[in-house]
Structure formats: C-alpha cells, structure tokens
C-alpha cells in the first residue's frame, strides 16, 4: 500500500451477543442491540446458527432490504407473493421488501452435513424505494464472483457479494447501493486495501481469526463488529491478518 493512501480506522467495536431468535434459533447480534443501535442505514446484523427443529417462520418486512448469506448448510425461503427458493452454502439472497412482504426462512437439515449457519444483514431502503414492489436477487455460490489480489493460487480471496473489489464486480444491484464482501486470509500477515467511497458508512464483522485495521496494531478478535471512521481524506481501509485462517465480512453503503 502506498504511504500516501489514508486508511479508515476503528472508531467503535461491539462484541456480538448470543440471543434466541425466531423459533428455537440462536443468533449472535451486534447491530440492532443496545450497544449499537445507530449505524444508519444498517439496521441489524445477525450471525445465525439453526439447529434441528429451529428456524424463522412467517414474519413481515417493510421498507428495508434483507441480505441472507449462507456460510454452511442450506435454507429454504418462501413468501406471501408466491416466491420460493433455496439458499445454498456460499449463496446469497438479496431481498428488497419495499412496501411490505411476509416471508419464512427455514433450514434444510442434513444428517450428513453441518447445521445451517449464516449471516443476515438488514439495510434501510432510501425513501424513494420504500414503497416499491418487493424484489429479489439470488446468486448460487458459483455465481458470486471472486477476486484474488495475489492471483488464483494466492492466500487471499474476496467473494464480491455486491460492489467491486480488485477489478471484480458483482452482478447484484442493490436499491440504494451497498458493497458487501467476504474476505478470507490463509496466513498471518496477509493484507488488502479496499477502496471505499468517501462518506459511506462501513463496518467489519470478524468470523474467524483476528485482524488489525489501518496503522493500529491492536488485534480485533472473532465475533466483533468494527465500525470504521469516515473522514473525507480516508480513501479506503487497510486490513491485515494477525492469525492464520482468518475471515471476515466488510460492508459499506451511502447514507
């Protein structure tokens, strides 16, 4: 990274707390808790684990987008508009609820496979889209493009769920715009610099391992949501692994 490029830094971090949700499901929640209520336009972030017999039966959404990204296992989805489908491990569903919809998300339990785990992010829609028709953008794992900053056989992989990174752009077009990446580092010391438009609200959620941000040497451990600064002079964020086998989510969007 060139010395003159300024990185964003961590201005707040919140440990995701385990809490029951839905029908017997367990989530680690950070955004949307008392510790992190005001991160406009991000409304909620759940890192969920769905054991046998649990799930998220019929519930409403309105005026927001819900982004469901499966890390392990699969989940079925159906709604009041007649849409139904399956989100596989590594796949994503980007639902814009618009003027309102009722849907259910239930796991597919496989005795030979892992219990379903994933992330769900809620993003407030801009005012002009709040009364739009509900819509979906769904990608299977092999449809999500991947960036390899150090080459296809290198130690860094970035799944570009939405937005663009290292010359790779996702086909997902969120209403209002939102960038969403799943970054994996194989080794301690692996690093990236991800450009972020000036003024955008941004956060990182650490899934495994630990990272450091910008010039701060402090390791940021697993299950923490890291809120990033947004100074006009900061062109993006520098992220370095401080442990082997590290991965995290980076999300950013305009106010």
TrEMBL record:
Domain Pirin N-terminal: from-to ranges: 27-123
Keyword Ribosomal protein: no
CDD domains named among the record's database cross-references: cupin_pirin_C, cupin_pirin_N
Reported cofactor(s): Fe cation
InterPro entries in UniProt: Pirin, Pirin_N_dom, RmlC-like_jellyroll, RmlC_Cupin_sf
UniProt KW keywords: Iron, Metal-binding
Protein known as: Pirin N-terminal domain-containing protein
Organism annotation: Hericium alpestre
Lineage: Eukaryota, Fungi, Dikarya, Basidiomycota, Agaricomycotina
């Amino acid at each position: 990274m060139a010395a003159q490029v300024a990185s964003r830094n961590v201005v707040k971090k919140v440990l995701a707390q385990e809490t029951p949700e839905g029908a017997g499901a367990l989530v680690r929640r950070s955004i949307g808790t008392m510790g992190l209520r005001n991160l406009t336009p991000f409304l909620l972030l759940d890192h969920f684990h769905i054991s046998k017999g649990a799930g998220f039966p019929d519930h409403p959404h309105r005026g927001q987008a819900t982004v469901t990204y499966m890390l392990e296992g699969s989940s079925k989805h159906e709604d009041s508009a007649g849409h139904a489908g399956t989100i596989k491990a590594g796949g994503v569903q980007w639902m814009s609820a618009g003027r309102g919809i009722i849907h259910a998300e239930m796991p597919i339990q496989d005795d030979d496979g892992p219990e379903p785990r994933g992330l769900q992010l809620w993003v407030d829609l801009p005012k002009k889209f709040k009364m739009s028709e509900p819509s979906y953008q769904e990608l299977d794992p092999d449809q999500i493009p991947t960036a390899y900053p150090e080459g296809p056989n290198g130690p860094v992989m970035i799944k570009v769920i939405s937005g663009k990174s290292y010359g790779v752009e996702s086909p997902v077009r969120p209403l209002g715009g939102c960038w969403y990446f799943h970054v994996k580092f194989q080794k301690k010391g692996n690093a990236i610099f991800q450009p972020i438009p000036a003024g955008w609200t941004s956060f990182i959620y650490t899934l495994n391992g630990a990272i450091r941000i910008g010039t701060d040497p402090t390791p940021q451990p697993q299950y923490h949501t890291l809120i990033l600064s947004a100074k006009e002079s900061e062109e993006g964020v520098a992220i370095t692994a401080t442990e082997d086998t590290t991965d995290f989510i980076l999300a950013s969007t305009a106010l």
